[in-house]
Structure formats: structure tokens, C-alpha cells
Write a structure and sequence with these properties.
Largest sheet: 2 strands, antiparallel
CATH architecture of the domain at 36-122: Sandwich
Distance between the termini: 59 Å
CATH class of the domain at 36-122: Mainly Beta
Order of helices and strands: HHEEHHH
Radius of gyration: 20 Å
CATH superfamily of the domain at 36-122: Cupredoxins -  blue copper proteins
Length: 125
């Protein structure tokens, strides 16, 4: 009986793998699409440095939120979603949609600014 279950499992596994290999993989872009200089200006305009330490932003030495250093190297954003530029822009725009318990306020950031801010935060420090 055990051998039959093992064979069935192996067949299902192989069938699933061959099906998965025949599908086109979903591509997730890890390259930001916004303008980093525009993002730097938006970060200053929205006062992000009051809560975060952000390299390259004068006066961005806040300690309320996490430091936004080496963002591209992180695995997760807000501890709950994969770190991609699109997810970062979404979190910047609607932090409570991504993480309902986050302390980050909704700063009424436009989509264009959120994408640009993501590009700035993804640049090498």
C-alpha cells in the first residue's frame, strides 16, 4: 500500500513539474521605472525624512520608521510583501492596504511620485 501511494505521489509530482515547465514563467521586474531625481524631490516634499533615515536626503535622520538604506537588497517590504519596485510604490501610496497594522501614515502620494520614490530608494547607496 505504501509503495502505491509513493508511486502515485511521484507521478503527480512529475506531472505537475512538467506542466509548470511548459508554462511561461511570470516575470517580476526588479528594475525601478521611475526617475530617481524626481523621487529624491518627492521624498523631501512629503517629509519622509522626519520618520526615516534616508541616504542622500539632507535632514532625513528620523528614527520612527526603519532606515531606508540598501532597499534593493531587502527581501520583504513592511515584513509582508516581496520587495519589488511595484510593491514598494504600492506600499508608499497605500501602506494600510499592504500592511493594515503599519504605523506608516497615508501621505497622499501620487502614483507618479510613488514610482519615482521607489526608483530613488532602489538606487545604489
Amino acid at each position: 500500500m505504501r509503495t502505491q501511494i509513493g508511486r502515485c505521489f511521484a507521478l503527480v509530482l512529475v506531472a505537475g513539474m512538467s506542466h509548470a515547465c511548459s508554462e511561461k514563467p511570470t516575470e517580476i521586474s526588479l528594475q525601478p521605472v521611475g526617475n530617481a531625481e524626481q523621487g529624491r524631490r518627492a521624498i523631501r516634499q512629503h517629509g519622509c525624512g522626519a520618520c526615516h533615515r534616508i541616504p542622500g536626503i539632507a535632514g532625513a535622520d528620523g528614527n520612527v520608521g526603519p532606515p531606508l538604506v540598501d532597499m534593493a537588497a531587502r527581501v520583504y517590504l513592511a515584513g509582508v510583501v516581496a520587495n519589488t519596485p511595484a510593491n514598494m510604490a504600492h506600499f508608499i501610496r497605500s501602506p494600510h492596504e499592504v500592511s493594515p497594522m503599519t504605523a506608516m501614515p497615508d501621505m497622499q502620494v501620487t502614483q507618479a511620485d510613488a514610482v519615482a520614490m521607489s526608483a530613488y530608494l532602489y538606487r545604489p547607496n
